[in-house]
Amino acid sequence: QQLASNIRKEIGDHVSARALGFALFSSEQRSYAAQIIGVDTQHETSVSSLPGFVKQGRYLNQQDASEVVIGKALARNLQVSVGDELTFIGSGKDGSIAANVVTVVGLFDSGNQEIDRLLVHMPLVAFQQSFSMGEDVHSIVISTTEAMQTTDIEASLKQQLEQGNKQVLHDWTVLQPGLVQAIKADISSAAVMYMVLVVLCGFSVLNTVLMAVLERTREFGIFMALGLRPIQISRLVLIEAILLAFIGLVLGMLFGAVLTGYFEINGLVIPGYEEAAARFNLPSRVYPSLDRISLLVGPLCIFIAAILAAIYPALKLLRLQPLEAMRVRT
Fold it and tell me: Running DSSP on this structure, what letter comes out for residue 63?
């Protein structure tokens, strides 16, 4: 707990200590085994979404109270509700019998049957007393607002953990490898879709520039008859395409920045998303983030694709003959 307090002073309040154990819970009718977690009631809400899943009663609010919050599935198996008492028995840290009588103060519904059937939250101090743990804890959970912050926090905490021999530091990529794979798959599919859009935009620019060149073939023939060389006309078309692409780049970035900034402040409501968000205790509004990468990478890819698409029509003008060009009717 002292380590959790020191970390909290360094990086903020999104730090909570936990202790884990297993026990057999009994009501007047039934008995059922479950995992019991002792949580710091003052800070658990800042690192866990489970308090937001409490549908009946309330979440824990006293460190030394003999009370628990259990899942609806476990409550159904034990045939208890808010206000009923449970007796649990387990094994303490020193090998003694851990036993206590607790009161159910809340029922949560996370949507995950495994969690709702096998998980119990209990105040940390009461857990330590029941399981003869003194002031020891099993883990310290740290939450950040952005995933990229975990690298900086991990680097700053390694110095503190080097002083002890039992502490091990794991970031979310180690604890949730399945989530990492899902994110990578999502990024890969999004990259493929974006590349398809870039290619489509490139062909659209190619078609536009090529048609503009063909429509002005007679005009270009007259220019060549007046003394302009094909490479000069080709350069003129390429510069024209670059200027148009640059204007589109600036306007697109400006419009995108204003639109994203507006939704970053006010949020975006996606139809049908509210129900899915509520299931995972997430806000119903989505708040996009505006950063340099998202602002520059996309428009620059389109800009480069537009320039590359304009090269072929520009090169086509190098083989243009003045007499043949002036005979072309537009």
Answer: T
For residue 330, the model assigns a pLDDT of 54
Distance CA 12, CA 22 (A): 31
Residue 145 DSSP SS3: coil
- Please report the pLDDT score of residue 326 as a whole number: 74
Among the listed residues 188, 154, 185, the one whose alpha carbon sits nearest the alpha carbon of residue 172: 154
CA atoms of 103 and 81, how far apart (whole Å): 10
Cα distance between residue 194 and residue 294, in whole Å: 13
CA–CA gap between residue 245 and residue 239 (Å, rounded): 10
Look at residues 130, 120, 141 and name the one whose alpha carbon lies nearest to residue 59: 120
* CA dihedral (21, 179, 46, 85) positive or negative: negative
Extract the residue ranges of the chain whose pLDDT is less than 70: 1, 147-148, 159-166, 276-282, 325, 328-330
C-alpha to C-alpha distance for 325 and 223, rounded to whole angstroms: 10
Q: In whole angstroms, what is the distance from residue 139 CA to residue 38 CA?
A: 10
What is the four-CA torsion angle of 74, 76, 81, 86, rounded to 10 degrees? -50
Cα–Cα distance, 83 to 67 (Å, whole number): 10
CA distance 223 to 54: 78
> How long a stretch of residues is the chain?
330
**Contacts for 206 with CB less than 8 Å, ≥ 6 apart:** 309, 310, 312, 313
Angle between helices 292-316 and 230-266 (to 10 degrees): 160
Q: Which residues contact 40 (CB under 8 A, 6 or more apart)?
A: 4, 16, 17, 18, 63, 124
Please state, in angstroms and rounded to a whole number, the distance separating the CA atoms of residues 38 and 239. Answer: 68
CA 141 to chain centre: 18
Q: Cα–Cα distance between 47 and 24 in angstroms, integer?
A: 27
